[in-house]
Design a protein that fits this description.
The chain is α/β, with parallel strands linked by helices. The protein is built from 15 helices and 17 strands. Helix 13 links the parallel strand 15 and strand 16. The chain starts with 12 loop residues before the first helix and ends with a helix. Its EC number is 6.3.2.12, 6.3.2.17. It comes from Paracoccus mangrovi. Keywords: ATP-binding, Folate biosynthesis, Ligase, Magnesium, Metal-binding, Nucleotide-binding.
Length: 411
């Protein structure tokens, strides 16, 4: 973290240079499933991994950002990379980089490729960091499959101001003649993805056209041209997970798997800080009789998904503890939540230089119609809430960086 700037500088030149110095390990990793999109990348990846592992396969996985510890980013054949292996592989990448400019994400992605190249596995799940076209992960010439989850407005300072521009960046992971699973999209985003795929002769399997997933009662119904599957609801909560589950199942079907793997995908996936109920630890003890939940969504689409999840839960007074980055559309995130919550307590994200000051977060929340105040930290906010509403639902939200801090604080 001290050696390399934690900045976003979308370019592949530095990545190609360090990979060449390392002997191009990205060309020696197991078949790649490359996943891009604005929301749902991590959940979809977790479901695909659960499905593949249920078939007895070994799966590498790369994801970002990490929550509680860096090792979460690199999973080798099902297990998080060890401290010893991580330290050794980072040192090797530092030596190969030879002091030249490179970002934090670039050199750690190079480290992941090096680790993946040395451990046998059946598949590699590769999650895009930001965008797609110029993301550090986009150096795989012939992936087995690409996946694009729902595209919406986010990171406009890097990816473009319009949905079409952002979709164009996400579609940058498409490769010639490589099939792509596409989640249901806004028509503007879909048109951009289809146009790019046509130029590359990349076959698309598009949600609500070639496959569909929906909830019926307590079942997830998945349907494509191979038939219909009646499955349990996803273990990951929220209506948006129906779409993510459908995307994951469509990917598994494209890879030749069936009902057993699809069922495992929806009931065995684990993905922290996505509407996660905290069940033990010091913060749970501080909550007393109150429910304590954690979610890392941070953009308008994330706010809409969270609001829909809350609307489908048992009615209970719901209070938010919220910390956000100063690069986000805070009002866009909060607007959908206003009808579902009683209050918001704003906090700074500890140790994060780009945190939005708590006072500013509270001011924006109030403008969207949420009763808002501030607190110095999450535990203080939690104790204040439960002192007034002992059996409330308390949801800590607004940022994956805050979610990671909470998971560490809660042990």
């Amino acid at each position: 973290m001290a050696l390399h700037p934690k900045i976003i500088d979308l370019s592949l030149d530095r990545m190609q240079r360090i990979l060449a110095a390392l002997g191009n390990p990205q060309d020696r990793i197991p078949p790649v499933i490359h996943i891009a999109g604005t929301n749902g990348k991590g959940s979809t990846q977790a479901m695909i991994r659960a499905g593949l592992e249920s078939a007895g396969l070994r799966v590498h996985a790369y994801t970002s950002p990490h929550l509680a510890q860096f090792h979460e980013r690199i999973r080798l054949a099902g297990e998080l990379i060890t401290e010893t292996d991580l330290a050794a592989i980072l040192a090797e990448c530092e030596a190969a980089n030879a002091g030249q400019p490179i970002t934090f994400f670039e050199i750690t992605t190079a480290a992941a490729f090096l680790a993946f190249s040395r451990v046998p596995a059946d598949f590699t799940l590769l999650e895009v960091g930001l965008g797609g076209r110029l993301d550090a992960t986009n150096v795989i010439d012939t992936p087995r499959l690409t996946v694009i989850t729902p595209v919406s407005i986010d990171h406009t300072q890097y990816l473009g101001e319009t949905l079409a521009e952002i979709a164009g960046e996400k579609a940058g992971i498409l490769k010639r003649r490589t099939p792509c699973i596409v989640a249901p999209q806004d028509p503007v985003a879909r048109a951009v993805i289809e146009e790019k795929a046509e130029r590359l002769f990349a076959p698309l399997r598009i949600g609500r056209q070639d496959w569909d997933s929906r909830r019926e009662g307590m079942s997830l119904i998945y349907q494509d041209d191979h038939g219909l599957m009646d499955l349990p609801l996803p273990v990951l909560p929220g209506p948006h997970q129906i779409v993510n589950a459908g995307t994951a199942i469509a990917a598994l079907r494209e890879l030749g798997f069936g009902r057993i793997e699809a069922r495992a995908a929806v009931i065995e996936a684990e993905w922290p800080a996505r509407m996660q109920r905290l069940s033990h630890g010091p913060l749970v003890e501080a909550a007393g009789q109150a429910e304590l939940w954690l979610d890392g969504g941070h953009n308008p689409a994330g706010g809409e998904a969270l609001a829909a999840t809350l609307a489908g839960m048992a009615k209970k007074p719901t209070h938010l503890i919220c910390g956000m980055l100063n690069t986000k559309d805070v009002a866009g995130y909060m607007r959908p939540l206003a009808a579902q919550v009683q209050s918001l307590t704003a906090i700074d994200i500890p140790g994060e230089p780009n945190t939005l000051p708590a006072g500013e977060t509270a001011r924006i929340a109030a403008e969207t119609g949420i009763q808002a105040t501030t607190a110095p930290d999450a535990e203080t906010a939690l104790r204040r809430i439960v002192a007034e509403s002992a059996s409330a639902r308390v949801l800590i939200c607004g940022s994956l960086y805050l979610a990671g801090h909470i998971l560490r604080q809660n042990g």
